[in-house]
Amino acid sequence: MEERCSKKIIDSQSEEAFLRCATVILPYLNPAELASISSTCKTLYQISKLVTSRRTSDASRGIENLPIPFLNPIAGGKSEPYSYFIYSPTQTARVGPEIRQPWGSDGDASLYGKEGRPDPFLFRVEGASGCDCARGCGDGCNCLTADGFLLTRECGPSCSCDSMCGNRVSQGGVMTRLKIAKDERKGWGLFAAELIPSGQFVCEYAGELLSTKEARQRQQTYDKPASNGHVTPALLVVKEHLPSGNTCMRINIDATRIGNIARFINHSCDGGNLDTVITRSSGALLPRICFFASRNIQENEELAFSYGDVRLDPNGQPCFCSSSCCAGILPSEHT
Ligand SMILES: C[S@@+](CC[C@H](N)C(=O)[O-])C[C@H]1O[C@@H](n2cnc3c(N)ncnc32)[C@H](O)[C@@H]1O
């Protein structure tokens, strides 16, 4: 009798340990792995269901200030309930294919530990000068007046002001309610979940910062549907031009595998409702690409910007932006 009781205690202890391990490990799995493991037993099925429901409720896995849910109205939600990717709220260096990030666990929000959000600046210019405003940055702040482009200049790592400074609007992450919803023809898209007033910062375009050579190589892979394993590419190339028309700066950000919610913004031939702003900060080596509302955006309106004007491939992907000036084909500039 005594022997049987102690066996029961060991069984319940090992069951508890199994549950604890499964709860920690399952959030590291991709959807295919999760589906496969969930079919092995009832307990793992229940845990996978919980992981899926947490993933669906917040694409940003607690990293942004507000949850950004997925909504899939297609066929009663029978297709995938969320889109899988690694979340980075800021620009990041190239990452290896083996990178894993938990998503759908109880502790999603503590991903970045006590340090909070990662630094928005990947590379700094040592010894650069910034502002030394003692009481909040206002009209006299050097960062505002340095080149006259108010929207494109922010305080940065070489300034003495802190993250609460009013001239760092794009550095604190998403501050407005957004949601991601699926369209049968365009795939996932980013939508306003509340009114966004004209001029308001919406989000940065975050992802892997690539050299032009790497960007070209990846673009070639993405252009071959058979080899890209059904990934939806999200490689953004922004070129800055001199008044002469020559390109003076080019920035390549690939949010296909790792990025933030900006990777869900679809193209519109009429320019959409977002301004793409090259944002420089004092002491930061590289600019960041940020989106601001170009007009008042109503609740439930889809957010969109123009991917470019060049359509080199007449057999390129069809465009379904439904604007009156739609060219019928998505921009396909050779990067
Ligand atoms: C940066 S992703 C945007 C998010 C994407 N819809 C998804 O499901 O992840 C770019 C891809 O979205 C689709 N897309 C974007 N704008 C579109 C449009 N106006 N019409 C059709 N497809 C579009 C294309 O497949 C394009 O390669």
UniProtKB/TrEMBL annotation:
Top-level taxonomic group: Eukaryota
Coiled coil (UniProt feature): none
Alphabetical list of InterPro entries matching this protein: H3K9_HMTase_SUVAR3-9, SET_dom, SET_dom_sf
PROSITE patterns: SET (PS50280)
Residue ranges of every copy of the SET domain listed in the record: 176-308
PANTHER family according to UniProt: HISTONE-LYSINE N-METHYLTRANSFERASE SETMAR, HISTONE-LYSINE N-METHYLTRANSFERASE SUVR3
The protein, known as: SET domain-containing protein
Organism: Castilleja foliolosa
Lineage: Eukaryota, Viridiplantae, Streptophyta, Embryophyta, Tracheophyta
